[in-house]
Amino acid sequence: MKILEDELKIIEQSNQKFIEENENLKVKINDLNNDLINSQNVVLNQNQIIKQFDIDKKELEFLKLNLDYGHKCRKSFFNNNGFVVGTPGYKKCVLSKGKLDD
């Protein structure tokens, strides 16, 4: 009988150790999941910054081309084939370096 009681005690101790280890692993998994979510948020923020940079870069390129070719694309008294400033046709004309595609 004593042997069975000792064996039961050993099993209970082993069980308790497994339960504690299981809880520790659950905490580690939660911590790692939180780290993963934080890293994903950082990546999303960086992607937004990159997209904004690309938009700003394209806008800057348009503004530079507008300085050089805007007069060729702008509708005026002397240029009836031009476009009204701000229209998609005007922007396309400026980006194509003053080529008027009606």
Explained architecture:
Helices cover 78% and strands 0% of the residues. The chain has 2 helices and no strands. It has 102 residues and is mostly helical. It is rod-shaped, with a radius of gyration of 35 Å. The N and C termini lie far apart (102 Å). The protein has one domain. α1 packs across α2. The mean pLDDT is 91.
Task: Give the structure's gist in a few sentences.
With 102 residues, this protein is an all-alpha fold. The chain is built from 2 helices and no strands. Helix 1 (2-73) crosses helix 2.
Write the layout of secondary structure elements.
Blueprint: H1 2-73, H2 88-95
Q: What would the principal axes of the Cα set say about the shape?
A: rod-shaped
Computed structural class? mainly alpha
**Secondary structure: helix percent:** over 70%
Number of strands: 0
End-to-end span in angstroms? 102 Å
Q: Helix segment count? A: 2
The unreliable regions are: none
How big is the Rg? 35 Å
Mean pLDDT: 91
Strand content: under 5%
Number of domains: 1
Order of helices and strands: HH
* Main sheet properties: none
Labels describing this entry:
mainly alpha; 2 helices; rod-shaped; 102 residues
